[in-house]
Design brief:
By secondary structure, the chain is an alpha/beta fold. The protein has 18 helices and ten strands. Strands 3-2-1-4-5-7-6-8-10-9 form a ten-stranded mixed beta sheet, with helices on both faces. A hairpin with a 6-residue loop joins strand 9 and strand 10.
């Protein structure tokens, strides 16, 4: 089949069905069907290499035995198909018996279906969707790789499905971060809020180039680990891993913040951590108690920064997307996190990203922190990625591309100070730890010069006002305390 219109074709079919309301449900419906198709293809491969392989899925529920339309008039459709899916397929897969000895590649079937839903009410339309998905030939190497690109379309479409957009990081950004980190076969790579698995698949793309032997393939299979809290992106991530030939995906359905960070052992740490942590959210007091008192925060991104630092191996490397609020914030937790980064890690680079990288889904300005666990920080390089010539902003139709990082990639290998023309600011510059400490840990450096007033939404205006006000209040409080100490005033 032609893959170009794959997503659109399925979405158009589903729009006829009264059981589905909105893109989020359409994508979820599509994804569990995709998972079963992909899983069946993987099982054919496992059976070929192991004649004694036994599927965890009962024989009549395997994709090949109910979904394939042989064009003989015998395939299920209409009410019969709906009854089968609703009353046999889903209840059985949700309640598969799993033991501690069940292989991961089989246990994931139950994990996937525990939180999946069957929304469609029209059995004829469901049959049409199944036939489209069954037309993908995952045995064909070229078509499978082409489908990997099509799968990107599914993930991008999440951005228009309400809050689901938080699960997707633009591929240009993940690829840039991976290229700078340079993962190697044999290293363990993690994302503790992995969403649909974008960072992990970018890493796998780099590792795949290094696979030469059967042992290399084994290392490739065991290289990535992810945790995802929400059901839909978890399902997408599992399917994404199978498509990328990870037979036993190490993707956990859970909340990375629900473990005491001080309890992690060496074998639970990683060589490489790549993340875009959720930000703007809040966690309850029970979750905060999993962190040292000085690192407790109401901001999820701050808590994930702690998790990353506690789970990064000695000599490990990390690249993390973080909002501007972390850079200029001077409240207790943010300051302590930045102190920890400077004193216990080598925070060598901060890349300032254009504001519209995630447009039009959020206007929050973000940055990439690169650090390793080899030594304490000596100096921090800041580099600003500007909008390409001819762009006023990135958008859904004109997204950021990896090529837009080419100047940053060149600079990375030959770091020099770059001064802005006509104004007394810098595009790239290094700052010593002492200079950053003297700024009260305000890392808002090499930012974007403001030439015109930007019109923000009311919500974004209020959010930015609160962040700036909190930062200024903290600075004022600190100065007042210093003055009182100089004057000998005691409270």
């Amino acid at each position: 089949m032609s893959l170009n219109g794959f997503v659109k074709t399925i979405q158009n079919i589903m729009r006829v069905d009264n059981g589905i309301n909105g893109d989020a449900q359409r994508i979820e419906q599509m994804t569990w069907l995709l998972f079963l198709k992909v899983y069946d293809t993987k099982e054919e491969d496992w059976e070929f290499h192991n004649p004694n392989y036994v599927s965890i899925i009962p024989e009549e529920l395997r994709w090949r035995n109910w979904a394939v339309d042989n064009k003989d008039g015998e395939s299920m459709t209409g009410e019969e198909l709906l009854d089968f899916v609703n009353n046999k397929l889903f209840p059985t897969l949700k309640n598969l018996e799993i033991t501690k000895n069940t292989p991961i590649k089989q246990a994931i079937v139950k994990a996937v279906f525990e939180d999946s839903n069957q929304y469609m009410k029209d059995g004829i339309q469901l049959r049409k969707v199944i036939n489209v998905i069954d037309g993908i030939n995952f045995d064909d190497h070229k078509e499978k790789h082409a489908f990997g690109e099509i799968y990107e379309t599914v993930l991008k479409d999440l951005q228009s499905a309400g809050n689901a957009g938080e699960f997707y990081t633009p591929r240009a950004v993940t690829d840039f971060m991976v290229q700078m980190i340079k993962p190697k076969l044999g290293e363990k790579i993690a994302d503790f809020a992995c969403g649909t698995g974008g960072f992990l698949t970018s890493a796998l793309k780099e590792l795949e180039k290094q696979v030469k032997t059967a042992e290399d393939k084994r290392l490739y299979d065991e290289s990535v680990f992810g945790i995802e809290k929400k059901p839909l992106p978890y399902l997408l991530a599992i399917t994404n891993m199978l498509i990328h030939d990870i037979d036993s995906p190490q993707i956990i359905h859970g909340n990375s913040l629900e473990r005491n960070v001080r309890e992690y052992k060496d074998h639970e740490k990683f060589d490489v951590i790549l993340m875009n942590p959720p930000y703007g959210g809040t966690e309850n007091e029970i979750v905060k108690s999993n962190f040292p008192a000085d690192l407790r925060s109401s901001e999820t991104a701050d808590l994930f920064m702690s998790v990353i630092m506690y789970r990064l191996k000695k000599n490990g490397r990390a690249a993390v997307i973080i909002p501007d609020g972390f850079l200029f914030g001077t409240d207790g937790a943010k300051t302590e996190l930045k102190k920890k980064l400077l004193n216990e890690f080598n925070l060598h680079t901060i890349i300032r990203l254009p504001k519209t990288v995630f447009a039009p889904y959020t206007s929050i300005t973000t940055n990439i922190l690169f650090f390793d666990n080899g030594s304490k920080t000596d100096k921090v390089w800041f580099y600003r990625v500007d909008l390409p010539e001819g762009y006023k902003a990135f958008s859904k139709t004109r997204p950021m591309q990896l090529d837009h990082f080419k100047d940053a990639i060149s600079w990375w290998e030959n770091r020099v100070e770059i001064k802005d023309t006509d104004i007394d600011t810098f595009k790239a510059k290094s700052y010593t730890v002492e200079e950053l400490v003297n700024r009260d840990y305000d890392f808002d450096l090499c930012g974007y010069p403001t030439f015109e007033e930007e019109v923000l939404s009311p919500e974004e205006t209020i959010r930015q006002f609160h962040e700036r006000r909190n930062a200024l209040n903290a600075k004022i409080d600190k100065r007042i305390k210093q003055i009182e100490e100089l004057l000998g005033i005691k409270k």
